[in-house]
TrEMBL record:
It comes from Acinetobacter kyonggiensis. Residues 94-236 form the Phospholipid/glycerol acyltransferase domain. One of its GO terms (molecular function) is acyltransferase activity. Coiled coil: none annotated. InterPro entries: Plipid/glycerol_acylTrfase. SMART domains: PlsC. This is 1-acyl-sn-glycerol-3-phosphate acyltransferase. Pfam families: Acyltransferase (PF01553). Keywords: Acyltransferase, Transferase. NCBIfam families: PRK14014.1.
């Protein structure tokens, strides 16, 4: 984490850490059991009312986290901008892309989205289902959980590729019964200078974008969503760790939301089987990523100018 950040006194950090840890743990044990208990009823009979109730409980849990941010981290300054052509609603259906630098990114997304957008889900690995509390909660709340197979496994059994795609389709289609925000970190991993150098990324602030996940989501949901939203997160003093954030070592966070216009041809192609379409789609994503890289540079320069 950048040394530009003024570290908090040790005693204050310990007190803050104990407060945050106690409140989040207590809130999790208060909100978690009802979600799991209601979720079990879905094995008997699916109910939209149960789904809505679980989302309300989850949003209550998130509101506790946001209260902590506002009251235990009062020095944290937010700069949130939403482009004029983007209208957000709690009843909307959105696909969202975002740059990825830290585990804090998800907390930023939740802080921003709680009162502006439906509950954010993201693709998770099926193996997480075995993590106590967390895995079952992801499944109950409708997070798409994927059984992904390696290239070697698919080469040995080509039917696995079709099975993976079908499971992806079902996971996305399940979201359509309610408002949703489906998040995709196109870089596929968190940005680090080491990964950036190894990739020889053409961007200054981003890793290369992996287009396959977005292509799949647009193929399944593209004509049913209200907008494709691009979130850009900038930490002017350096990307923090999760502990840095909750212990009060982050002073500023900037967030920009913009609407991405989806060309007609994007919804009419087949990414898996059409090589020409796949190349065109990747080029389109690369252009969006180049625009995003320039946006990050402008946002960073704005803060550098402010501090000069």
């Amino acid at each position: 984490m950048s040394s530009q950040i003024k570290k908090q006194p040790l005693l204050k950090k310990i007190s803050r850490g104990l407060t945050v840890g106690s409140v989040i743990t207590g809130s999790t044990f208060f909100h978690g059991p009802p979600v799991l208990a209601l979720g079990l009823t879905k094995f008997v009979k699916k109910s939209r009312k149960v789904d809505e109730t679980n989302i309300q409980i989850t949003n209550s849990w998130l509101s506790v986290n946001n209260w902590l941010i506002d009251h235990v981290l009062p020095h944290l300054k937010w700069d949130i901008s939403i482009d004029d052509d983007l209208e957000l609603s709690m009843q909307g259906r959105y696909l969202m892309t975002c740059n990825h630098q830290s585990w804090v990114d998800t907390t930023v997304n939740q802080y921003f989205g709680l009162t502006r957008m439906p509950l954010t889900r993201f693709f998770t690995k099926w193996e997480l289902i075995f993590i106590p509390f967390i895995g079952p909660a992801f499944k109950i709340l409708g997070f798409p959980m994927m059984k992904r197979h390696s290239k070697e496994q698919i080469a040995a059994n080509p039917e696995l590729k079709t099975r993976d795609l079908e499971e992806s389709r079902k996971a996305c289609e399940q979201l359509l019964s309610q408002p949703f925000t489906l998040l995709n970190y196109l870089e596929g991993t968190r940005f680090t200078p080491e990964k950036h150098a190894k990739q020889q990324s053409p961007y200054k602030h981003l890793l290369k974008a992996k287009a396959g996940g977005l292509a799949l989501a647009l193929n399944i949901l593209g004509d049913k969503i209200d907008a494709l939203v691009d979130m850009t997160i900038v930490y002017p003093d350096g990307a923090p760790g999760y502990g840095d954030f909750w212990l009060g070592d982050v002073n500023r966070i900037a967030v920009n939301l913009r609407k991405i216009n989806i060309p007609t041809w994007v919804l009419a192609g087949n990414y898996e089987d059409d090589a020409a379409y796949r190349e065109r789609f990747q080029h389109w994503v690369d252009e969006l990523w180049a625009e995003k890289d320039q946006l990050i540079e402008r946002m960073k320069q704005q803060y550098q100018t402010t501090q000069a």
